[in-house]
Amino acid sequence: MAFVGGIKDRPITLERMSGYSAAMTSQSLVPRAFHGRPSRAFGRDIALHLATVHRDIEAAVCFSDLVALGMLSGFAEAGIRAGRDFRIVGFDDIEESSIAFPRLSSVRCDSALFGRNAAEAMLAWITEGKRPPDKRRYDVELIARQSSLWPDNDGKQSDKSAPAAF
User: Which residues lie below 8 Å from residue 39, measured CB to CB, with a gap of 6+?
Assistant: First the structure.
């Protein structure tokens, strides 16, 4: 399994990659990362690269849904069935994740809660001098869809939610 996308050594990339790295290390596996722009074009290019050079990699956790959607396109182009031959999970759970084919599994975060808490913290800092903490973590949720969990023989797949800690 690889981590795909995100600019190397940027704080947001390191944060999103931290759960992946911890899981790999806990299983005595070496983390493998393919860093780059968080775009569909990068995802497509990496999928084509993995399809030809790294056939031993069977799954990817992506920096963003854009990267993951690009990977779906690249694997389709290479004749590799996402969700069956290669498992993919994105991050952000953008609307297109639920309508792409195969539907993209994604990590969902509560952006509204994040924004509200950030605004409240900034207002408290400005008006009351209360400095917010340097870091604050929020729960995320894995929305499992076809790209990581292909449907049974009847072809029906409902979204499955599972709490996750990243």
Answer: 66, 67, 70
Asked if residues 2 and 57 have their Cβ atoms less than 8 Å apart, the reply is: yes
N-term to C-term CA, the chain: 16
Domains of the chain: 2-164 (3.40.50.2300)
121 burial (CB, 10 Å; 0-12 / 13-18 / 19+) is middle
Cα gap 161→135, rounded to integer Å: 26
Residue 109: which of 100, 101, 118 has the closest Cα?
118
Q: Which helix (H) or strand (E) segment is 70 a member of?
A: helix 65-78
C-alpha 147/C-alpha 85 separation (Å) is: 10
10-14, 29-33, 79-83, 108-112: segment of lowest average pLDDT: 108-112
d(CA 107, CA 100): 15
